Amino acid sequence: MKNKSRFIVMEESIIRDEKLLFTTVSYIMILVIFINLNFYFSPAIGTIASITYFLINGIFLGRAFFEKEDLFLRFMLGSLLLVTFLAMIAWMVMIIYNLDITRSILVLCIVTALASLLNKRKK
Question: Across residues 42-58, what is the average pLDDT?
């Protein structure tokens, strides 16, 4: 058990998502991205929040759809699926109405809810 990689332990704790902790963290990252886009315009804040968002939701989707793959491939495929979901929902929002900062945040919230529900369903 001691030889377990930190990445495996991190993935397992994110997948368990006890008391929706990581789902809440994902929503907080969306709020940070929104505040940064409207007020601070800091690349450092945006990068850290975006990486955290992609890490959590990429692991959620990787676990939901690619459970039998190894850790790296599962994360990469989950991240690719996350980008695909973001693009599809952003396209739908753009068709319905113009895609601006507020609607971009709406897209992030929808994809976070979808990823969290898929992760909870897989348990």
Answer: 96
Can you give the pLDDT at residue 37?
94
Residue 72 forms part of a structural domain: yes
Within a domain: residue 1? no
Q: In whole angstroms, give the CA distance from residue 14 to residue 52.
A: 12
For residue 76, report the phi and psi dihedrals to the nearest 5 degrees.
-65, -45
- What's the number of domains the chain is made of? 1
* Residue 40 within any structural domain of the chain: yes
10 Å CB burial of residue 101 (0-12, 13-18, 19+) is: exposed
Judge whether 25 lies within some domain.
yes
Give the Cβ contact number of residue 95 at 10 Å.
8
Given CA atoms 9, 10, 16, 18 in this order, what sign does their dihedral have?
positive
Query: What predicted TM-score, i.e. pTM, was given to this entire model?
Result: 0.90
DSSP three-state, residue 89: helix
DSSP string for 51-63: HHHHHHHHHHHHH
- pLDDT at residue 6, rounded to an integer: 86
Q: Which residue is associated with the tokens 């006890």?
A: 18
Residues 6+ apart with CB under 8 A from 40: none
